[in-house]
Write a structure and sequence with these properties.
mainly beta, Thrombin, subunit H, 3 domains
Length: 298
């Protein structure tokens, strides 16, 4: 582990970046069936790690993986697996470490031009956020993915590679999907990782939430058209005509921003909602529920 950390620090210094050794995340190698490996990183607690299952690994019936650091090899149990983007949360009983969980970024959503650092046990390289996409070439994503331009996509940035910001916080995790542009890759934002972690802590499973708001499908404005009775939004006091301006501290400028924020809400976790009602701003606290079968509402 010391050798890998030294290489990572040397590369960052050479590239003129500012991360210190203690800010580098605790990365491990995750070995899947067939001996295929991908990077993983510790989150929230020393026994929890997230990674992305490589495309060449079948996910049907997948229940475990082996986590390795410089000194140990430990069998881990998969607690959650997203079959679409292949993000997984793995729990190990003991044996790795000492491990320091990487903090999850709680700042503003990444935007085009923001810089990040791809970090694995082998090295690190600079990357830049190029944008955020809900779809690519006819494929619609379950939630928006970050599109990044990375300096060494074939050398250091495999699926599961961690991206951190200047403060050493988890910004995103690379997926298995690339664009047709050389050096461009997609990444799962930290907000999605945080949702999985919080859902698993409270409910031992994770999934989409329902808050009971309906909006104009063809409008770009986050104005409430209807509030479902007996919904989290109704219980919080939201009303028809409210324009949502912020969700959990994230500024909302469009309906697309709002839908993204709802996708990342954890079930059972109180969320602050700021609205414009007439000429007055009001703030409410709403607790999302796991989604049922209400296709026209959010």
């Amino acid at each position: 582990m010391r050798t890998a950390s030294f290489i990572a620090v040397w590369f960052l210094i050479f590239a003129g970046l500012s991360l210190r050794a203690e800010e580098l995340p605790a990365t491990v190698s995750v070995k899947w069936t067939g001996g295929i490996e991908s990077p993983g990183v510790c989150v929230d607690r020393p026994s929890w790690f997230v990674s992305v299952v490589p495309k060449s690994v079948a996910i049907e019936g997948l229940a475990s993986a082996t986590l390795l650091d410089a000194n140990a090899s430990v069998e881990g149990r998969i607690l959650h697996l997203d079959p679409v983007h292949r993000l997984c949360l793995i729990e190990v009983p003991a044996g790795l470490g000492p491990v320091r969980p990487v903090p999850l970024s709680e700042g503003a959503n990444p935007k085009a031009g923001d810089q990040a650092h791809c970090v694995s046990g082998r090295s690190a390289c600079l990357s830049t956020v190029a944008g955020k996409d809900w779809s690519y070439r006819g494929e619609t994503f379950a939630y928006p993915l970050l599109r990044l331009r990375v300096a060494e996509s074939k050398t250091h940035c495999d699926a599961g590679t961690v991206l951190v910001n200047e403060q050493g916080e988890l910004l995103a995790i690379l997926t298995c999907q690339e664009t047709e542009t050389e050096g461009e890759v997609y990444a799962i934002p930290a907000a999605r990782v945080r949702k999985v972690v919080e859902d698993m802590k409270r409910h031992q499973h994770s999934g989409p939430v329902w808050i009971g708001l309906i909006f104009h499908n063809e409008s770009s404005s986050p104005e409430v058209l209807e509030v479902k009775s007996d919904s989290p939004a109704a219980g919080a006091g939201l009303q028809k005509g409210d324009v949502i301006t912020a969700m959990n501290g994230t500024e909302i400028e469009s309906l697309e921003d709002l839908i993204e924020s709802i996708h990342h809400l954890a079930a059972g976790e109180p969320s602050k909602v700021r609205v414009l009602r007439g000429l007055e701003e009001k703030e409410f606290e709403m607790t999302p529920q796991f989604a049922g079968t209400v296709p026209e509402s959010r």
